[in-house]
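pinging the channel bc i need a second pair of eyes. not urgent but kinda urgent?? the chain im working w is below, pasted from the shared doc
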Amino acid sequence: MNRNRTLCTLCLAALISIILIPLFALSASSGKNEPVFLLYSDCVDANTKQGILIREIAKQGLLIAVREKLRMQTWDIVLNGSNIPQKCLTYHIKVSVSSNSNVNISLRKENGGISNVTWSTSFNSSKDEHFDYVQYLQRINALSQTDFIKALEKDGIKGESIKWNAKAILTDSTVNALRKMDYVSNWIALRELDAAVSVNGESSQTLAGNIRGYANLSQLTAFLWNAMDKAFMARALLYSERLVETEHESAWALSHRAYARAFAGFHNLALDDLAAARNKGTGLTDVKESLPEWIDILDAYCRYDHGKLLEIADGRIDNELAQFLYALEIQHYGCNTTKIEELRKVLKRIPKCFRVHDILSSIGGVSNGHIATTLGPTIFSRDINSDLIGIIGLPTETKALLDMSVGGKIPSNAKSHLVSQRNSDTGFDDAEFRTNLIRNLFSYSCKSGNDTSWAILAKMIQNTTFVQIERRIRFMKKCWGVPVDQFLNLVKPYILDHPYGAHIESYGLDPKRNNKEYRELMNKMNYVDEKLTMVPMMNDAWQVGGNASGVAAFMKAFENSDAIAGDLEDGITMFCLENNFSWEKVGTKQALVQRAKMLKKVSPYSPVTVASLIVNDWANSKKEIPEWEKGYLNNPLVIKQFAIKYAELKDYAKAERFLRICVGKYPEEWAYTKLADVYKNQNKMDQWLSVLEEFLARPDYGLGHASVRVQIANYFMDKREWKKAEPYALAAANTWAAWAMMCACKCYERMEDWSNAELWVQRTAERYENSIANWYFWCKRTGHGNVKDAFNLLSDKLSLMETSQNREDKSRAAVIHLLQGEKRKACSIFQEVFYKDSNLYNGLHSILIARELKDDVAHDKLLKEFKEKGKTVKDNAKLHLCYVDLLTAYCSLLKDTSEIAFDKAVEECLKKAVDLKKNDMTKSNQSNLLYFAGKMMELTEKNDLATKYYKRCLEMNCQNLWNYILAGAALHK
């Protein structure tokens, strides 16, 4: 009887909510234009290092208090954007944490340009010498109920608190939306909740809905280049503390706090809550008669139990949650082939989850990149209209825009633009519509001040678009290696209003040739809330553009990281396990070990911890190694690091064991090539070849097959077995990768099949701008091919090379002029680089060309300058000392020193080159020296010796080296 009465009550409440929510939503757009509470967060001192989440917890605690205790609309720069409403009450909050976890929070109000601190507090939030997020959250939750409100009331801000109504429940539409793993659905769910709470009051059910909605958004938006995810995360955590407090730590409340903690990356705390919830049994008996259906999903997620997550995902109502969390766990899987296959399966279940699309887009390989960087944008463009058009309370102008788009009534100018771009097949074919949609939503929120949530949606759409563009253009330029000008023109409308639009524009420049313009673009960057997702942009600014703010932003991204699983795993993976960036940029190896130990504390089952300690703390981890070897046999990331470590230690038996597990369970190029190397190091070449052939029988999502075929082709070419090398080289070349085509060129050249050799080098030059001179150089070096057409292909680019700000470009131009017989032009360019950069390589070329031109004045001046600059050669340019010694021997030869003495000096220089420290010495160093020696002999008319040195230079087989090319050309005069 009681159960039936309860069900009737719930149904009635649900019906009332369904009726009232649209009424509220419709009235929101026609209400009074009340002031919006605008909140900025002030920067902390430069020497204060703290995560963004710490700031956001305090900030969102204040904003929640304003919304629920004073019933004001709020505007947060992080969530709503920087185009602020017309009518605001403006406040600033500053949160700083000292090294001993002393927290200082201050609030100040802007009043006619004057800003005064109206409230402040200080407290300690430490535990075991670390910052204690739990204690901090509880303190902020208490402040949001009391002190924050008192401070604002003291400033004259009054409002009516939202009432408590224990019978308020969630509608079916809200519940269903919260089960979906896309941010539009969860934004809609939270908007429905906000409307329902305003009408019906707040309850444990609505608090629980807010927890799940904001927790979902925190992970669904984590790929964006801003701090929205941390703001959402903070809200979920704060609501979870309030729910546990309100329900007196009931099992149901603890389960929801576990949800917030699991999504935030406090896996240890989430597991504690789940255990406590199970021990307590039932929760709110008048609302829930069992624990939430998703607690087993959270448990498997926090334990990194991939198999359990997949098992749960089949046939469950909360399938999308299990699928999404599975995708998050395998993003650091260590096995790209398996990861690609699994992520594609996930996207079949949740195609609108752009976080998963982004994870897939981040995986290297041309084949995957082609698909992944267009699939997400295509789905986004296809579905955004239908996802939004049915939302209750949609702003009138926005609805009209959506109606035109869905109904095909797009204005003629916009329609022609869209149709002209449809063939691009990139997913970016709705520029005018989407930019208008974003601006319209921002504008409505700013002008009305009655429903600021539209700005949050606009910002998510804007930043999703930006990240998808960045993924695509980075793939095109840095992985695929094709021109991006056409694509850049297509997407420019999307990035005009984005704060990092200059970064996208920078892809249209060659940072070496257009260094000045590139730096100017980098200087336009105003980095805000730097985070690890933005590191590729900041790395470009730092490494390529030499931008000081890029350096600072790079460092700040790590300081802004929080002690949560996601941030710690991303940093460790990025700088240690995937080696995308050098760890020395942001700290020491010991600091990396400390991050791994912190990760173990907050997420005790994370495989990233184990993998990191294998790499960086092997000696101190020996007691745990046997346990790890047994416990992580199903995790490719850990298996990979064990295999690499044992190979490094030359324990080939153990290395082979782990690599065999890898190729059996997680077939990946690195595993096959590493296993092949293990056999090669033991001189087991038959097994080496067998393993690589085994890999070639597997599916390939990138250029893995081409890379392995090039390895095999080079092996046979080293053995002078050209016919055996040919099929491998040719199959690799048919991928049209530049390095693969050059392998085929090399193979056919060795076979003296000049026609096919020229075919592949010509294709390389025609397809890749940075290889445009390769065909011409090949013709001049070998004495074969159509040198006239080859020169015509590059002639338009020659002036760009000459005026480039890059030394390599200028040197290339000088070599081309030299090969064309334009010695004075060549000498002039070599001199320019020599005087500007003190580069002795260019200086030596200048001296020898001046000698050949019989320009004694220039020769003597250059010789004197060369000797002076040679005295100041730095340790990291020891090769240049060999140039000095070689030139000294040449000058002695000119004074009738014997050829034997010169030859001895050359051999001594070659020996010095060999003795240079690792990474300074390659065959290219010797090749350069041998060409210069040959040229010196040629200038002294000792042609037999010149030929000897030129041939020795060619034996070094440094095909792309200027002096190697010049030596070949000299032999084919």
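so Residues 49 and 431 are 39 Å apart (CA to CA). and The chain has 49 helices and seven strands. — does that match what u expected or am i reading it wrong
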